[in-house]
Write a structure and sequence with these properties.
Radius of gyration: 27 Å
Structural class: mainly alpha
CATH topology of the largest domain: Alpha-lytic protease prodomain-like
Helix content: 55-70%
CATH architecture of the largest domain: Up-down Bundle
Largest sheet: 3 strands, mixed
Number of domains: 2
Mean pLDDT: 83
CATH class of the largest domain: Mainly Alpha
Low-confidence stretches: none
């Protein structure tokens, strides 16, 4: 069993245990705030179960029906987790409003407070660990699950304050106010997770990954790489697909072109965790490229080198050779 499976399985087991304990705490106390925490735990369990399936599916090899692999399921899994968070927040608000008009007596709040504190600590530690593992393996599923558990821990802090205030003041309505406040925060966090997952499904530009690729290419720039353009990056879950055009001296034979393309692939591939697939289209240079070409002993040069083209995310992403750009 690989690390991603073990990580998400740990999340499922711990979330199930906490869910049972929190519902027991609710039936002991009848606190809306504690019910909020318990309902959030249901989402953790369901999300972890689907995340386990998503990680299994994303690990399957490419096939005739899925030539780019199955990694996109991880974005769907993260989006489903966001939807579940929003739905849970709506139910929590509905329940809290009902309690304003039909309040239930609160009992054993000290016990409930102890359980919330314990759950918050466990969720924060586990969420931090899972999110870090997700970043290492570039897994949207693990990152979303880690963020969700940390969100659950943050809810615990709010609920601890709410239950503490009820204990100190005797104002039971503070319990409902805390539930509504955190449910609103939950909904906003869920919407952000949904937004990010939709961006992944729509191949939206990942600014962080793009900036990393540009930095790597700038730091390893080869003189014979006259320009790079039409740089595009796609995430397929934890897999990364990069394609671009590279302009090479037009007098290069096929062996030299292949060697440069292979070097380009190696430089990028070794900087990323997980599977990286790179597609490169080699273009021959044109006379107009001479102004920014730094090849010193070029046998076909038609004009002197006098122009510096900065390799940044704008220039490298343009779908045209750099001499066509008005800079």
């Amino acid at each position: 069993m690989n690390t991603k499976y073990k990580t998400i399985l740990l999340s499922f087991v711990v979330s199930t245990f906490l869910m049972v304990v929190k519902f027991m705490a609710y039936y002991w106390t009848y606190s809306s705030a504690i019910l909020t925490d318990a309902l959030e735990s249901i989402i953790n369990v369901v999300a972890s179960a689907f995340a386990f399936y998503a990680i299994y599916l994303s690990s399957l090899p490419k096939d005739m029906n899925h030539p780019y692999g199955h990694g996109k399921i991880e974005f769907f899994s993260a989006g489903l987790e966001g939807v579940l968070i929003v739905l849970a927040s709506m139910f929590i608000i509905f329940h809290a409003v009902q309690n304003f008009f039909n309040p239930q007596p609160l009992t054993d709040l000290k016990l409930g407070l102890t359980i919330i504190i314990l759950g918050a600590v466990i969720n924060w530690v586990l969420g931090h660990y899972i999110e870090k593992e997700g970043e290492v393996y570039q897994s949207p599923t693990l990152i979303a699950d880690g963020k969700h558990l940390k969100l659950d821990a943050q809810s615990g802090i709010i609920l601890i304050l709410a239950v503490g205030l009820v204990l100190l003041t005797g104002y039971a309505w503070l319990d409902g106010v805390a539930s509504i406040t955190f449910a609103s925060f939950m909904a906003w966090s869920g919407v952000k997770i949904i937004r990010k997952s939709i961006g992944g499904l729509m191949d939206e530009t990942d600014e962080e990954t793009l900036a990393k690729v540009v930095t790597i290419l700038k730091n390893n720039q080869i003189t014979e790489w006259i320009d790079i353009h039409n740089l595009r990056i796609q995430h397929y879950g934890a897999d990364l697909h990069i394609d671009c055009h590279i302009t090479l001296p037009r007098y290069y034979n096929l062996e030299l072109v292949h060697a440069n393309v292979h070097q380009f692939e190696e430089i990028l591939g070794q900087e990323f965790k997980g599977n990286v697939e790179i597609f490169i289209h080699a273009d021959p240079c044109l006379p107009e490229c001479c102004c920014y070409c730094r090849v010193a002993d070029c046998p076909v040069r038609s004009s002197a080198y006098h122009k510096v083209i900065e390799w940044n995310k704008v220039n490298l992403s343009l779908n045209q050779k750099h001499f066509l750009e008005s800079i």
